[in-house]
Design goal:
By secondary structure, this protein is an all-alpha fold. It is about 55% helix and about 0% strand. Helix 1 packs across helix 2.
Amino acid sequence: MAGFVRRTAIAKGLFGGSRFWMAVLGVIWARRLFKRLAGSNLEPVYREELLPGQALLITHHADQTHADLR
């Protein structure tokens, strides 16, 4: 859906001259610029290459402090 809106905004706003679609395109580009400038401070906790035949199991164990309240 986002790709359709972006393509339509470029076609009708940038090349078609529609002020509405030009504004939509400006909002899309401003959002992308903001996300790029804000960056990401997420770092992987664990990284390892899996060999053929290996598997990865991700589980979540309940917090012990909340288990006491039940």
